[in-house]
Specification:
Length: 368
């Protein structure tokens, strides 16, 4: 195997697999990527749950294949100047040359690389890459982080066949907050499907879609989702289990409505939360006509108080939240104003972008 690659090309390709290759694995092969060189060059990386396969632009001088340490070659590519020559040697070694720099890396044979699942093309849908990235960004912050309820450690992708298209609902929740966004997409599926995409795979998918406006085709299998764009395919194993009934969590009869400037409210939350307890991030909102008063107290440090103008007419109400949850929601929202719908101090609170019914957030209050 012998090929010449531009520094930027190999650097960008290896940057894309750094989040997938497993650096702390007990299986050395998972810290490697497979470079296959035939008429064209391609690379593959996997951690057994997620896999990425993509093309590599290169000047090919000799065919072959080898598993190469991903982190080390990335570090080399980042530091050298000019094009890089990769040349396989005896006993799975690879020589890396650039200018007057030469490196030798110990590789592993192709036979040790895990086989990747084949794309199943029975059910497939199509969505714009930037639209899918947008949906992930709007929901992923609400997913669980190593939650013992393992189904919460991923995004629910709910595909619903409609008369003329398919509705895709993407949902994230950790049991304390929930975010839901929906979009109409094209495609063909036999029946409604609820699939749980692991958080890590969603993050890699977001990176893959970054700055792209072409289509991603999603192939749906019983145990995997395949995301195909150009000649690049991201494969993810699905999380097994039943996702909570998210529709039951979304309140339908919250009658108390507040309209507030998003940026003013976000800045006030950040300032006030400075004085909240680090463990709970507890903050109190006092609602009165035309204003919200934000209060945080910490007996060991002190307190903070700030008023924000808001469109609200109704009974005075005091309600507590984890400030971090509200900040995460507001940071994910577009537009200048946010609508907050309430019922009782301890019942779920609904937050929506003003004028956009396609994005809904729910947060559970705290006792004040």
């Amino acid at each position: 195997m012998k090929l010449k690659i531009q520094k930027e090309e190999i650097q960008n390709a290896l940057q894309g697999v750094q989040g997938i290759v497993d650096k702390k694995t007990t299986m050395p092969i998972l810290s490697h990527f497979l470079l296959k060189v035939k008429k064209t060059a391609s690379l593959m990386a996997t951690d057994l749950d997620i896999a990425l396969k993509g093309p590599l632009k290169a000047e090919i001088m000799d065919k072959g294949s080898l598993c190469i340490p991903a982190k080390k070659l990335f570090e080399i590519a980042r530091e050298v100047d000019g094009e890089i020559l990769l040349e396989s040697q005896d006993n799975n070694w690879i020589k890396v040359s650039s200018g007057k720099s030469t490196f030798k890396l110990m590789g592993l044979p192709e036979e040790e690389f895990p086989s990747l699942p084949e794309i199943s093309k029975s059910d497939e849908v199509t969505i714009k890459a930037n639209a899918l990235k947008h949906m992930i960004e709007k929901t992923i912050y609400a997913t669980g982080e190593s939650d013992t309820r393992y189904t919460l450690n991923g995004l629910l992708m709910h595909f619903i066949p409609r008369k003329n298209n398919i509705e895709l609902k993407v949902v994230g929740t950790d049991g304390h907050r929930l975010s839901l966004i929906s979009a109409k997409i094209e495609g063909q599926i036999g029946e409604e499907k609820k699939l749980i995409l692991p958080k890590k795979a969603a993050m890699e998918l977001k990176k893959l879609a970054e700055g792209r406006d072409d289509n991603i085709t999603i192939y749906i299998d019983k145990n995997h989702l395949f995301f195909s764009m150009d000649d690049t395919v991201l494969t993810s194993r699905l999380i097994e289990g039943t996702y909570p009934n998210y529709e039951q969590v979304i309140p339908k009869d919250n009658e108390k409505e507040i309209l507030v400037d998003k940026l003013s409210f976000l800045k006030a939350l950040r300032r006030t939360s400075i004085m909240s307890k680090e463990r709970t991030n507890a903050i109190r909102l006092d609602l009165e006509d035309e204003k919200i008063t934000l209060i945080s107290m910490n007996p060991d440090i002190g307190e903070a108080r700030e008023e924000v103008a808001a469109q609200y007419k109704g009974e005075q109400l005091t309600i507590g939240y984890n400030a971090r949850y509200l900040i995460d929601i507001l940071q994910a929202m577009d537009g200048e104003e946010v609508v907050i719908k309430l019922q009782e101090p301890l019942s779920p609170t609904l937050l929506m972008e003003s004028g956009n019914k396609g994005y809904t957030c729910v947060v559970m209050p705290m006792r004040t």
